[in-house]
Write a structure and sequence with these properties.
The protein is of the alpha/beta class. The chain has 2 domains: 175 residues, Periplasmic binding protein-like II (D-Maltodextrin-Binding Protein, domain 2, 3-Layer(aba) Sandwich), CATH 3.40.190.10; 144 residues, D-Maltodextrin-Binding Protein, domain 2. Helix content is 30%, strand content 19%. It contains 12 helices and 13 strands. The strands form 2 sheets. Strands 1, 2, 3, 5, 7, 8, 9, 10, 11, 12 and 13 form an 11-stranded mixed sheet that branches. Strands 4-6 form a two-stranded antiparallel sheet. Helix 2 packs across helix 9 and helix 9 packs across helix 12. It starts with a strand and ends with a helix. Pfam families: NMT1_3. InterPro entries: TAT_signal (IPR006311), TRAP_TAXI (IPR011852). This is TRAP transporter TAXI family solute receptor.
Length: 353
């Protein structure tokens, strides 16, 4: 498959978790081939059902997470229930706990989040300024790509074209920046602020954004002029727009470069290949890694079997969503500063990562 292409290094060189764990990259080749069924049989199954917060219906978090839950439930014989959510920030608040809170009773056991949101939560900055949260990581999974979507009929060719016209400074374009308090909103606000784009920002889910972009009845335009979404590729509801409304993705390479250089959190400049959405050419954008996170005190059984299923049943996940093809146990351990769950670390050691 034509994959998104990295244009800048994903992370700085130097001390990595791989070197801390004490294994060389060559040892990673000893990992057993993904796709085998259950793996090690003497690891106990979880003692009780679990929950996994995913993301917006239609988004990659949701489809990927639901597929993973089905497989984990199958191999353990214990239900891991997927729950829709508003994404990264919502997932962190439902999975993590405040520093000093030793209770393992959380609304969810597992979830996805972006690396920048994880960093802010772990250090108690940005939207998590009330105090740091505590949680562990099971893996770095695939990367999210920022989509700035405009209808094919839009005159906007680049991000700054969303600014008001000079002869009508008070007529602002309306742009959806994702659900309130979501990881998408954090990144969308950062991009618009950095590029100094003056628009009316509204909070909508992915499905609401797609629907609002499409004109209704005799209207010439939808109720929004563009929407920003951070997700895997392809994001199905966005892809489906190409056969109805028709859309373009705005190139945000310049602002992506500025953010990647000044913000810590895993941001990199990347590109979305034209084949993903039937585009005329590749589009430069901002990418950010995703983490699979766990609540404090998650049982070793749930952690071990989730990681084991993620990689050993990878071939079964790929048909559910192509992003599963991006899974690589060698990069999965790169979740600093969030510590790996002890059972997840044990799985990587057992498999020579």
């Amino acid at each position: 498959m034509d994959r998104p292409r990295l244009l800048t290094p994903a992370r700085p060189t130097g001390m990595t978790r791989r070197s801390i764990l004490g294994f060389g990259a060559a040892a990673a080749s000893a990992l057993l081939v993904p796709g085998c069924s259950r793996g090690r049989a003497d690891e106990p199954a979880p003692a009780e059902a679990g929950t996994f917060v995913t993301g917006n219906p239609g988004g990659v978090y949701n489809s990927f997470g639901t597929a993973l839950c089905e497989l984990v439930s199958e191999v353990t014989g214990m239900e891991l229930k997927p729950l829709p959510s508003n994404g990264s920030v919502d997932n962190l608040t439902r999975v993590a706990s405040r520093a000093g809170d030793l209770s393992s009773s959380r609304p969810a056991d597992l979830g996805f989040c972006t690396s920048d949101s994880a960093l802010a939560a772990y250090e108690g900055t940005g939207q998590f300024s009330k105090g740091p949260l505590r949680f562990t990581a099971l893996a770095r999974v695939y990367d999210n790509y920022v989509h700035v979507v405009v209808p094919m009929a839009s005159k906007a060719k680049e991000l700054t074209d969303l600014n008001p016209a000079k002869n009508a400074p008070h007529q602002k374009m309306v742009v959806s920046v994702g659900p309130k308090n979501s990881g998408t909103q954090v990144i969308a606000d950062m991009i618009l602020d950095e590029a100094k784009v003056d628009v009316t920002r509204v909070n909508m889910t992915l499905e609401e954004s797609v629907d609002a972009l499409v004109p209704k009845g005799s209207a010439r335009r939808g109720s929004i002029d563009a929407f920003i979404w951070s997700g895997g590729v392809p994001t199905v509801p966005i892809a489906e727009l190409q056969s109805t409304l028709g859309f373009r993705l705005l190139d945000i390479g310049k602002v992506a470069q500025m953010i990647a250089l000044k913000e810590f959190g895993g941001f990199v400049v990347s590109s979305i290949p034209p084949s993903q959405y039937g585009l005329a050419s590749a589009v430069q954008t901002l990418a950010v890694p995703n983490y699979l996170i766990a609540k404090p005190g998650l049982s070793d059984s749930w952690a071990w079997w989730t990681v084991n299923t993620l990689f050993r049943r990878q071939n079964d996940l790929i048909p559910k969503h192509p992003e599963a093809g991006a899974l690589d146990p060698r990069s999965a351990i790169s979740t600093m500063p969030v510590p790996l769950h002890p059972a997840a670390e044990r799985w990587y050691r057992q498999n020579h990562i």
